[in-house]
Amino acid sequence: MTGSFPQSRCRRNRLYPTIRQALMETVITPSNLVLPLFVVPGESVEEPVSSMPGVQRWSVDRLGKPVEEAMEAGVRCFLLFGIPSYKDPDGTSADRLDQPVQRALRLLRDRYPEAYLVGDVCLCEYTSHGHCGIIKEGNIDNDLTLKRLASVALSHAEAGAHAVAPSDMMDGRVSVIRQELDGSGFSDVGVWSYAAKFASAFYGPFRDAAESTPAFGDRRSHQLPVENRLEAIRDALMDQDEGADLLIVKPAGTSLDVVRDLREEARLPLGGYVVSGEHSMLAGAISAGLLREDAYLEYHLCVKRAGCSVIITYGAVDLARRVRRLLGV
């Protein structure tokens, strides 16, 4: 017995290179990947985000460059975040059709009909205080915020979004947004819900890129406690019941237990968001020679293996190129 096991294992390993693809239980393809894009006011803007290696902010007139690069690599899905031309306490710029996200959606829908466009729906980039909702007496007013979010989602649909992705974590927002879209003739526009979004320490670089750091307090009143797995599952299943089309778990890599549980319980596809801190951590370690380059792919493979068919990641283009080389396509 002791001698036969190592021999069997060795035989398996010798055969593996010749049938590698057939034996791979988990495979990432470019169609699994979503590339986030940061869109800013102005013209001819192509500005690196210092805290996020390889990530830039783009003006609408320059968006063709990252989109065409991504599509050449096989990535067809894009998640748009916007920095507006002005901010105020109620985030009134968020649903205006002359702002960067809405302008970008119109341009991309017209120029790249094969692309799938998703608009991030939240107020944190648009409010002067940096919080995800309307503040009344020092607290977020959930119901007032829902009305604003529904209006923002509708503006994205009118501009050409195929789906909207509410990332605010207000109670009941999926139902309100779904009703607004359906009642306005956009029943074909999907709702990608950030269904299990934790109050994570891994969002810092994103807040630099989106200029959305809270001016006071934090977001623990509405984002999920990192310690609470069951609460995350319960919230996600509520979004499913309210009419979501995709459930997003964020951050993905630190929430694989939640992804696995949701894959067993939910009837919807799952998305995993490999967030800015995860991206910068991996890219920084690879750049410093502390990790091999394939650590980035391994990290994302684990997200897919846990149950996510959609992976939102800032490294989508490089990942797509890498997996195509590995698969010989």
From TrEMBL:
Entry's Gene Ontology BP terms: protoporphyrinogen IX biosynthetic process
Lineage: Bacteria, Thermotogati, Synergistota, Synergistia, Synergistales
The protein, known as: Delta-aminolevulinic acid dehydratase
SMART domains: ALAD
Residues reported in the UniProt entry to bind 5-aminolevulinate 2: 276, 314
Enzyme class, broadest EC rank: lyase
Origin superkingdom: Bacteria
Key words of the record: Heme biosynthesis, Lyase, Metal-binding, Porphyrin biosynthesis, Zinc
